[in-house]
Specification:
The complex is a heterodimer of chains A (370) and B (390). Chain A contains 11 helices and 9 strands. Chain A is α+β, with helices and mostly antiparallel strands and 370 residues long. Chain A folds into 3 domains: 107 residues, Acyl-CoA dehydrogenase/oxidase, N-terminal domain (Butyryl-Coa Dehydrogenase, subunit A, domain 1), CATH 1.10.540; 96 residues, Butyryl-CoA Dehydrogenase, subunit A, domain 2, CATH 2.40.110; 145 residues, Butyryl-CoA Dehydrogenase, subunit A, domain 3. In chain A, the strands form 2 sheets. In chain A, strands 1, 2, 3, 4, 5, 6 and 7 form a 7-stranded mixed sheet that branches. In chain A, strands 8-9 form a two-stranded antiparallel ribbon. In chain A, strand 8 and strand 9 form a beta hairpin. In chain A, helix 4 crosses helix 7, helix 7 runs parallel beside helix 9 and helix 9 packs antiparallel against helix 10. The radius of gyration of chain A is 21 Å and the shape is globular. Chain B is an alpha+beta fold and 390 residues long. The longest helix of chain B has 29 residues. Chain B is 46% helix and 15% strand. In chain B, the strands form 2 sheets. A 4-stranded mixed sheet of chain B has the order 1-4-5-8. A 4-stranded antiparallel sheet of chain B has the order 2-3-7-6, with no helix packed on it. Chain B has 3 domains: 85 residues, Butyryl-Coa Dehydrogenase, subunit A, domain 1 (Orthogonal Bundle), CATH 1.10.540; 108 residues, Butyryl-CoA Dehydrogenase, subunit A, domain 2; 146 residues, Butyryl-CoA Dehydrogenase, subunit A, domain 3, CATH 1.20.140.10. Chain B starts with 6 loop residues before the first helix and ends with a helix. Classes of the chains: A alpha+beta (370), B alpha+beta (390). At the A-B interface, helix 7, helix 8, helix 9 and helix 11 of A face helix 8, helix 9, helix 10 and helix 12 of B.
Chain lengths: 370, 390
């Protein structure tokens, strides 16, 4: 049992933090939002830092790093309120790397690591948080497949070089890789609440390559990886929100004194710290359990997302509240923390969804299995 | 980063589990697991059993006769005790006053007091709170006036846990009235059989006799029973507080009580009620999150780093979880928890309803103390805020 980071891990975190400080200040982020919520130059920077391929094996041109490195990087970029879909890319990498063999990962993992945007397209109008609820159809066409249907809230969905799409084949739900150059594709881009870019993806008899392996297993893997990464990112955003709040409480004066001298506000800040630390421990737990057997992994991720979801909502709401009027303006950064936290709670299964899992699978014991 | 304990640590846990299994009387464990009231003999008998093995002093270093376990081993031992249903180790002797005697006592004081604590022979209680001094402990007024080789102690302590069984009490007393209140406090060890000591019970809301008033009327205490220098008591008290670490969250007992809650929900036929089930699931998440907090503190301590800035969080969250457990057990039991069956609380047969449910409501009432004692949770939030905001 050890929750320390190695020197290499610290160096990675520091390098990412330095980059974010230089290249991703709030004004820069604001400009990215105004320009559509995805910046190709930022994506190039992240690629040059090795981050797009962080979890991709070195044999495929990545850095071959594990969950702890992923956690550190996302926590750090969460602090910077990163808009670009790095976590989504890592979910795609996990699907290609762990749920497929043969030509597809050979061809696409190196491209993903080299900065070609590959994102999962798994959500549908009726799927909510239940990814196996898929209406999109996959029909065999000789040796190839053709997909028809519509996917929603696809991260940077109109910018992608390829999508990993869930669709219903005659033998069950499966995952398919759709290339941008394929026929029968239309995208409708829009911003999300946090200002990041997403799109609907319309597929009309679109040629696709099927990922070998069991589709349900792959979707379960994607859901767990996605939720665990969302936990890590949310911890970073909460750190930022709390730091801003602490600074504000010590700076803002009313009734002739800093408002941070009022006990009711001090206790609220203490409760925010509690929420953050409970979430941080659970983010560790989820990431460290990603390589556990599926049932154990799923339970850990669900427990973690319940805690992180509750913490994220509390910290986000209270950060706004303690800032008073400035907290509800677009101009000041804290409202963006709140919106990002809200978005992370609703992504990859919200609190109620995961609470349902915790309640369904819980047995007599409640230990972290250390 | 690694979540799992080492193979050596797991082997250690197996070892202590096996020992507890052969030494803990199943009837006694059943009382603990059923939430029944424990007698003096229940608590002290088990303390002596541990003492003979050298494990009552399980947190002591080897130099003072302890096993010299790491903080992780201490945690695993505590976990094994909790899950087996062992009676609690009362902290006042081995966990509170002993480290003070080790750090501030003279060799003579160490030789005089430590063996009786380690063996479980001598029962200690804590004399801190006074009627006018709760959260504001430094305002305490119990006076100790020097008279040759003695102090003459006058005043009143309150909320003194299990003082009715105690042989000795460690006290904070006022030895100076000028200057800052903190600068005039000394740390005295007082024999409860001294002339002038009176113990008066305080009956608590659950009907239990657990805490007391302790009155001092011209009690003569040899100066040789002062720990540390005169007026150094506040420093010692702060040292003692900093010594209460990860186990103040008591997560191991909460894990056990969660199992009990789940079994109770099954036995009462509401395990499949979604509203009940969700509340239990939320509490399970709370307990796992608390355990992660505890493990992080332990890991930091083991690697010799200054404890994380989250110790006060442990007290707050640990006590909230303890209360929520008793609250949900009460709700799960429903109206059958309402009969107040005094004999059933100590395991005597009663001809009424379901005696096994009788301890639930008193336990719920009793556990309201956890967010009040040991520095109320509001005081703990002040500490967290102080660290955050300055």
């Amino acid at each position: 049992m050890d929750f320390d980071f190695s020197d290499e891990q610290r160096q990675l975190r520091d390098a990412v933090a330095r980059w974010a400080e230089r290249a991703y200040p709030f004004e820069q982020r604001r400009a990215i939002i105004a320009a559509g919520g995805f910046d190709a130059r930022i994506w190039r920077d992240l690629t040059d830092l090795g981050l797009t391929g962080l979890t991709v094996a070195e044999t495929h041109g990545g850095m071959g790093q594990g969950p702890v490195e992923a956690l550190l990087v996302l926590e750090t970029l969460g602090t910077a309120l990163l808009l670009e879909p790095l976590a989504a890319t890592w979910v795609a990498a996990a699907l290609l790397q762990d749920c497929a063999d043969g030509a597809l990962p050979q061809a696409w993992l190196p491209r993903l690591a080299a900065g070609d945007l590959v994102v999962p397209a798994l959500l549908e109008r009726r799927s909510r948080h239940d990814l196996p609820q898929v209406a999109c159809q996959a029909n065999a066409d000789g040796n190839a497949w053709r997909l028809s249907g519509r996917k929603h809230v696809v991260p940077a969905g109109d910018q992608a070089a390829a999508w990993l799409v869930s669709a219903r084949a005659p033998d069950g739900v499966a995952l398919f890789l759709v290339e941008r150059s394929a026929a029968g594709i239309a995208t409708t881009p829009y911003p999300l609440q946090d200002g990041s870019r997403a799109a609907d993806l319309h597929l009309n008899a679109t040629p696709a390559q099927r990922l070998p392996g069991d589709g349900a297993t792959a979707l379960a893997w994607a859901a767990d990886v996605g939720a665990a990464l969302a936990c890590a990112q949310a911890v970073g955003v909460m750190e930022r929100a709390l730091a801003l709040t602490v600074e504000y409480l010590n700076t803002r004066r009313q009734f002739g004194v800093p408002i941070g001298s009022f006990q009711v506000l001090r206790h609220r800040a203490a409760d925010m710290k509690m929420a953050l630390e409970l979430a941080r421990g659970m983010a560790y737990y989820a990431l460290l359990k990603l390589d556990a057997p599926q049932a154990e992994r799923r339970q850990a991720v669900a427990r973690a997302k319940v805690q992180v979801g509750q913490s994220a909502r509390f910290v986000g709401q209270q950060a706004v509240q303690l800032h008073g009027g400035i907290g509800v303006t677009d101009e000041y950064v804290v409202s963006h923390c709140f919106k990002t936290l809200t978005q992370l709670e609703l992504s990859w299964g919200d609190t109620l969804h995961h609470l349902g899992t915790v309640a369904a699978v819980m047995g007599e014991d409640a230990a972290v299995g250390a | 980063m690694e979540l799992a304990f080492t193979p050596e640590e797991r082997a250690f846990r197996d070892e202590v589990r096996a020992w507890i299994d052969t030494h803990l009387d199943p009837a006694l464990a059943a009382k603990v697991l059923g939430g029944l009231r424990l007698s003096k003999e229940d608590i002290q008998g088990w303390a002596r059993t541990l003492g003979r093995q050298g494990w009552l002093a399980y947190r002591w270093p080897r130099t003072f006769g302890g096993p010299g376990w790491t903080v992780v081993q201490q945690h695993l031992f505590d976990e094994a005790l909790a899950e087996a249903g062992a009676p609690p180790i009362l902290p006042f002797g081995p966990v509170m006053v002993a480290p003070v005697i080790m750090a501030f006592g003279t060799p003579e004081q160490q030789q005089r007091f430590l063996p009786g604590i380690a063996s479980g022979e001598v029962w200690w209680c804590q004399g801190y709170s006074e009627p006018g001094s709760g959260s504001d402990l430094a305002s305490l007024r119990t006076r100790a006036e020097r008279d040759g080789d003695h102090y003459v102690v006058n005043g009143q302590k309150t909320w003194t846990t299990l003082a009715q069984h105690a042989d000795w009490i460690f006290c904070l007393v006022r030895t100076r009235t000028d200057g800052k209140p903190q600068a005039g406090i000394s740390f005295l060890l007082i024999d409860m059989r001294s002339p002038g000591v009176t113990v008066r019970p305080i009956r608590l809301l659950d009907g239990e006799y657990e805490v007391n008033e302790v009155w001092f009327d011209n009690v003569r205490v040899p100066v040789s029973q002062r720990i540390g220098e005169e007026n150094q008591g506040w420093t010692i008290a702060k040292y003692l507080l900093s010594h209460e670490r990860a186990n103040i969250a008591d997560v191991n007992r909460s894990k056990r009580e969660l199992k009990r809650l789940k079994r109770l929900a099954q036995a009462e036929g509401i395990w499949d009620d979604a509203r009940v089930r969700d509340q239990i699931a939320l509490l399970e998440v709370d307990i796992v999150a608390l355990e992660m907090l505890v493990l992080r503190v332990l890991a930091a301590e083991r690697s010799g780093k200054p404890a994380l800035d989250i110790a006060a969080l442990l007290k707050i969250r640990g006590s909230e979880v303890q209360q929520r457990l008793t609250e949900l057990m009460l709700l799960v039991a429903g109206p059958m928890a309402l009969p107040y069956l005094e004999p059933a609380l100590t395991g005597q047969p009663v001809a009424a309803a379901d005696a096994a449910l009788a301890p639930l409501a008193p336990r719920y009432f009793n556990m309201r103390k956890t967010t009040i004692y040991g520095g109320s949770n509001e005081v703990q939030r002040n500490i967290v805020a102080q660290t955050l905001l300055g």
